[in-house]
Design a protein that fits this description.
This protein is an all-alpha fold. The protein has one domain: 434 Repressor (Amino-terminal Domain), CATH 1.10.260. Helices cover about 65% and strands about 0% of the residues. The longest helix has 20 residues.
Amino acid sequence: MHTRIEEIRNSKGLTKKNFAHMLEITEQSYTNYSKGKRTIPTDLSIKIKKLFNVSIDWLLTGEGTFFLKTDSTKDKILNNIDRLNESQLKCVDSFIEFEINKKQKI
């Protein structure tokens, strides 16, 4: 599973720092997960699934399809996140939090 989170990060063109920020973990934690030094907790796997629309089966086993579906607006934001300033990143964080909360209520 650790190599698959690298695949997700690379497919979105995100730096380790930005990817970790989106997952609300430290960059060091991300490095430990991506190198297989620590097991990725279930709640983080679920967060990855929700944020990046990744198949949980693929994330856990490597089998099945990578992404569930594409949302072009989210993809545009993720592909350009390195270019955002601090206030724009705060807006993205708020949006992500809103989306996560909305999906948890469903």
